[in-house]
Amino acid sequence: MTYYSVALLAEQGLIVRAGEVSIIDASVIEAKNCRLNKGVDGQCTQDPEAAWNVKNGSDGKRKSTYGFKGHLNVDEDGFIKKTDFGSGNVHDSQYFEGLLTGNEEAAYADS
C-alpha cells in the first residue's frame, strides 16, 4: 500500500485517528557476496553499494550479513507510512528522523 492510497482512505473518512503512533524498524536484506572466478571474465559479482552488517542475535552470538537494510515506519495497524533503504553498515538511528511523518504523537523504535 502506498502513501497515496493511505491518504485517499483518510480523505474518504475510512481512517479516523485521534493521534498517530509510528513503529520504526529495520530488516536486513542479504546481497550476493563476492566469490572468486564468478561472473563475466572472473570478475567479482557482488553489489558495490552493499556493506557488512553485524547483528547480535537473541542467542548472544554475533551474525555478519553482507547486504542492505530496509527501514520502515508503520502505524499500529501495520500500514506502511514511509520507507528508506541503505547499505547494511549504516546504523538505524541515522534513518530515524527521515522516517517520521511529523504527525506522530508517539514513535517507537528498537536499538
UniProtKB/TrEMBL annotation:
Among Pfam families, the record links this protein to: DDE_Tnp_1
Native species: Candidatus Kentrum sp. LPFa
Domain annotation Transposase IS4-like: ranges: 20-110
Spell out the protein name for this chain. Transposase DDE domain-containing protein
Q: Name one GO biological process term.
A: DNA transposition
The protein's GO terms of the molecular function aspect are: DNA binding; transposase activity
